[in-house]
Design brief:
By secondary structure, this protein is mainly beta. About 0% of the residues lie in helices and about 55% in strands.
Length: about 130
């Protein structure tokens, strides 16, 4: 079963990745929105305590360019998020380095660029391996 609404992004304070729920605070004047990942567990003392709807949540400020939604798991059971780099490995073909876009029950939507041409593909999660960064 997919975990709908789960996101990951890089923290602004130290560049570490955190996952949880994505929240954008626009403030009272709607200027300079702040982007947060609300976490289940506090990783260190640098988390921010935020009140939303009368409840307190721990969160971290994140770079919005790094935020991606959870799409599924690779063949080694590692989580894949939008914008992650993955290997598409099919029997009899050379591996292709791709970028994850979206996920479905057992399929993932990918793209890669070959010279000046973009290629799009839907692949089975069993053919995907996350590239560790």
């Amino acid at each position: 079963m997919r975990e709908i609404g789960k996101f990951r992004g890089k923290r602004l304070d130290n560049g570490e990745r955190v996952d949880g729920y994505y929240f954008v605070s626009t403030g009272s004047l709607h200027l300079n929105p702040m982007h947060y990942i609300i976490v289940d567990e506090v990783h260190d003392y640098k988390s921010i305590l935020m009140e939303i709807g009368g409840e307190n949540f721990a969160c971290y400020k994140v770079d919005p360019e790094t935020v991606g939604q959870y799409t599924g798991r690779d063949k080694n059971d590692r989580e894949i998020y939008q914008k992650d780099k993955v290997w598409l490995k099919r029997h009899g073909y050379e591996p292709i380095k791709c970028t994850a876009i979206a996920g479905f029950e057992s399929w993932i939507w990918l793209y890669w660029k070959d010279h000046s041409t973009y290629h799009w593909e839907v692949a089975y999660y069993g053919d995907i391996e996350l590239i560790k960064e």
